[in-house]
Amino acid sequence: MKRIAFLFLCVCFLALTAFECGGGKDCCAFPPCSEIASLKGAWRLDYFQNTATGAVDKDPEISGKSVVFSFSDDQRSGTIEGHTFVNTISGAYTLGANCTFRITSFGGSKVGEPEWSRKAWLPSDSTGGKGKYHVSGDKLILKFDQNPEQLVFKKDK
């Protein structure tokens, strides 16, 4: 009986010391959906990824051209400026709880736009421009609610 009591106490001791819950840490908290609550920065579109199949459509890197969007916000609302392969764009967005966002306006010219960079055209409010974002290190992912493809950006230098 003493042996069982001793083993029980050892197991309890290990269980209590195995987790670093002291020092103000919440051991049961889920990690945030994003490292920061902002899209701020210049981001180069690296690829589109189909979230159902995992298929990736990489930047074809045509003559050194790329899609670069610069986001600027106060963690509630912001603006977008940038360019696709051949056109300039601008727009606005809002950020919500749990890494949600809404594109409130987005525009520019689509004249002469190749097929790949045409897909980078962000939908606005009237065309389903809401979704979730995730920022981790030098990567930004935008996933729109009504689109099976997410946009994966890399921090632009």
How would you explain this protein's 3D organization?
The chain is mainly beta. Helices cover 13% and strands 40% of the residues. The protein contains two helices and nine strands. Strands 1-3-4-5-6-7-8-9 form an eight-stranded antiparallel β-barrel. A hairpin with a 4-residue loop joins strand 5 and strand 6. The protein is globular. It starts with a helix and ends with a strand.
Summarize the structure.
With 157 residues, this protein is mainly beta. It contains 2 helices and 9 strands.
What is the topology?
Blueprint: H1 2-17, E1 41-50, E2 56-58, E3 68-73, E4 77-83, E5 88-95, E6 100-108, H2 115-118, E7 130-136, E8 139-144, E9 149-155
Antiparallel strand pairs: 1-2, 1-3, 1-9, 3-4, 4-5, 5-6, 6-7, 7-8, 8-9
Strand order of the largest sheet: 1-3-4-5-6-7-8-9
Note the total helix count. Answer: 2
Give the mean pLDDT.
85
Helix content: 10-25%
Low-pLDDT sequence parts: 16-22, 25-30
| Overall number of strands | 9
Oligomer status: single chain
**Major sheet summary line:** 8 strands, antiparallel, barrel
Shape category: globular
Terminal Cα separation, in Å? Answer: 67 Å
User: How much of the polypeptide forms β-strand, as a percent range?
Assistant: 35-45%
